[in-house]
Amino acid sequence: MCDQTFLAITFGPCDSCSENRPLMNLYIKTEPINYCSLCMEIMACQGLASGETLKSLKAESETLRKKLEEERKKLHDVELEKVAEKAEALGELNMKTRRTLKGHGNKVLCMDWCKDKRRIVSSSQDGKVIVWDAFTTNKEHAVTMPTTWVMACAYAPSGCAIACGGLDNKCSVYPLSLDKDENLAAKKKSVAMHTNYLSGCTFTNSDMQILTSSGDGTSALWDVESGQLLQSFHGHSADVLTLDLAPSETGNTFVSGGSDKKANVWDLRSGQNVQSFDTHDSDINCVKYYPSGDAFASASDDSTCRLFDLRADREVSIYSKDSIMFGAASVDFSLSGRLLFAGYNDYTINVWDVLKGTRVAILFGHENRVSSLRVSPDGTAFCSGSWDNTLRVRQEGRGVGRELKQGGTTLYG
Amino acid sequence: MARDMSDIDILKMELEQLKKEVSTPREPVSKTSKDTMDWCEAASGTDLLITGVPDDKNPYKPEKGGCIIT
Q1: Is residue A43 exposed (0-12), middle (13-18) or buried (19+ Cβ within 10 Å)?
Q2: Does residue B12 lie within any of the structural domains?
Q3: In chain A, what percentage of residues exceed pLDDT 90?
Q4: d(Cα A265, Cα A293) in Å, to the nearest integer?
Q5: Residue B51: domain span
Q6: Nearest-CA residue of chain A relative to B10?
Q7: pTM of the model
Q8: Which residues in chain A have their CB less than 8 angstroms from residue B38's CB?
Q9: G protein gamma domain location, by residue (chain B) (predicted)?
């Protein structure tokens, strides 16, 4: 069937200039547009203009990026490793596993220490959140969340509550009671509401505010008591996978990392993105501030960890080896910032000398991916959670005696 | 939120951000690296994951004991 080959001309007021003119019968996506021929030509040209806008935006973006790179390069007058040559070399490390926390029925996805340096909260794929006493390995509390894949958990600074969330798109706060029989789930408070999974959460300096990151591409600051959104942070162009708050002495900022390969530094009060780093080649799984607050480290699926200096506004070190081919899932610094512990998807933990950029130890023991890793608040030990359903608490065992030496290679278990 | 934005909006957002970033104050790496290193050295004496924890203060002290069965 052939289309109409003649045009029935209508005469009337144009939708755009309101003048009485012959109208062009145009349909855009089944909507009738009654424009006069002049307005239709103008509209067609604007269409071209917006196409150019996309191009010109991209071009402008490119020029600015180049300028940024130049500005950063000017200040790159020396490598961190060169400056660190003067630093004393680290002695041989002798990390020993002191406690293995068993009890989760499925992959451990996240863990956090309490400020009392002995309690640990951990969350798992099966929806269980457990509070442990790391000294005795006793389970003090257990909560079953109404969701699986609890990807984030955090201990409140007071030690009286925990926050957790995951595929339920929420962050819930559970006050911990001393009464063992009390049902924790009854007192649960839903604080954060995102439109996609919760990837990370942390309390700010008090129990009153929580910072969350989500697969919906945003981070947000919430008031715990009212559940009100205090500030939201937009800037990532894909899932935000991790966040870390700056050490309290250095001010009100936090850093987030995402699937867009970027790490962004934000001002908590204004919601502004103050700095951005995009040198990683793949998703950033974890970010952690350096203890002084002037730098942060990141762990990525590109199998590297990197150190970014905030005052120089650039990446200053890469911790990688050709033999490391699996993504790094989690990092944390020792108290002085000299050691960087990184957990990888090849089941190992690599310990890096932050200043010299070299690896100082490989730690084995987990039987599946290391998903989460944190140093205790007093720096005496660090805990790693893994997809093998366990958590391991390790310490530097120097001076304690026994070492395992096999044919010259020192193995740390 | 970012998933719902059109490409043009994402580009505009990135452009705004770049404009702000080009003008942030920066310091040379030689200065900042030295400061980082100094901070680290000052704190390394108290870093128990490097120096180790003396037994009497170690809450994770392994039990010395066990028996020898012959």
Answers
A1: middle
A2: yes
A3: 70
A4: 12
A5: 7-57
A6: A237
A7: 0.82
A8: none
A9: 4-70
Contact state of B8 with A53 under an 8 Å Cβ cutoff: yes
DSSP A247: P
Structure tokens at A125: 């794929």
Q: Is residue B13 part of a domain?
A: yes
CATH of the domain at B37: 4.10.260.10
- For residue B69, tell me if it sits in a domain: no
CA gap A195, A216 in Å, rounded: 6
Rounded CA gap, A35 and A37, in Å? 6
Mode of pairing for the β-strands spanning A189-193 and A198-203: unpaired
Task: Work out how many domains chain B is built from and give that number.
Answer: 1
Per-residue pLDDT tens for A212-254? 999 999 999 999 999 999 999 999 999 999 999 999 776 799 9
Please give the distance of CA A83 from its chain centroid, rounded to a whole number: 29
Q: Which residues of A touch B37 (CB under 8 A)?
A: 83-84, 86-87, 355
Kindly state whether residue B40 falls inside one of the protein's structural domains. yes
B16 touches A at CB < 8 Å: no
Structure tokens of A9?
A: 């001309």
Asked if residues A271 and A279 have their Cβ atoms less than 8 Å apart, the reply is no
Q: Which of A68, A291, A381 sits opposite B22 (nearest CB)?
A: A68
Nearest to A204 by CA among A166, A242, A251: A251
Mention every residue, 6+ apart, whose C-beta is less than 8 A from residue A384. A330, A341, A343, A349, A366, A370, A372, A373, A391, A392, A394
Question: For B45, which residue in chain A has the nearest alpha carbon?
Answer: A336
